[in-house]
Amino acid sequence: SVNFNNLFFFSFLSITEFNVSCRYRGVFHVEKNGRYSLTRTEAVELCRALNSTLATLEQLVKAHEAGFETCRYGFIVGHIVIPRISPYHLCAANHTGIYKLSANTTGRYDAYCYNTTETRDKACEPIERLDTSLLSNQSEIVIDNADGSRYNADGTRHSGDSSSSGVDDENVGSGSTHDTTPVDTSIRRSSPSYYGSVSPVSHLPDHSSGG
User: Fold this and answer.
1) pLDDT digits (tens, 9 = 90+) for 7-45
2) Could you count the other beta carbons within 10 Å of the beta carbon of residue 28?
3) Structural domain boundaries in the chain
4) With bands split at pLDDT 50, 70 and 90, how would you rate the model's confidence at 166?
């Protein structure tokens, strides 16, 4: 016989967290439950659920010109990329510009989405809701925003602590899980942008999420 108490209990454990960045000319970075857990199909799905589309290279170039950089490989249409402005040895192998992953791989990465209605150079207002009907995974969803606010998919404020899956973004490189050399966090800690501090500094890198 099935123990319904266990089923009920486990349903509470399945929370999916999406970390979203500020939008730069409409383009933003999304990661699911920490980095590199989306297939290309899931990346397309997720952007659609966030009222967006998977960004094109042209859209990402415009965002990059407006100041957008990350240390994360993510899907765009036709490519897997990292937008870089300042060189750093753990991010895109010290390259700047739009760094493309050369391997035509079917691996898991993050996503770069594009919202056509967001025309400003930079916008950090929180995304407050998401269309769960467009996602194949129907667990409880929490949206972690660049400003630190957290929302449930239906637009209500989420109460509860953030999971430690959102690793301090710049402290983990874009390749090996062993790339945990800290950057000068004193500068980044004071920056309100998502890439300054994705989560409280007390969170240690999660070595289980591979690259």
Assistant:
1) 444 445 578 999 999 999 999 999 999 879 999 999 999
2) 28
3) 16-151
4) very low
Look up the CATH architecture of domain 16-151. Roll (3.10)
Count the neighbouring beta carbons within 10 Å of the beta carbon of residue 136.
Answer: 7
Rounded CA-CA distance 55/47 in Å is: 9
Q: Counting Cβ atoms within 10 Å, is residue 211 exposed (0-12), middle (13-18) or buried (19+)?
A: middle
Contact 13, 158 (CB under 8 A): no
Per DSSP, the three-state class of 73 is coil
Q: Where are the alpha helices (DSSP H) in the chain?
A: 4-13, 40-49, 57-65, 185-189
What type of residue sits at position 142? Answer: V
Does this model's pTM top 0.85? My answer is: no
| Helix, strand and coil percent figures for the chain, each rounded to 5 | 20, 25, 55
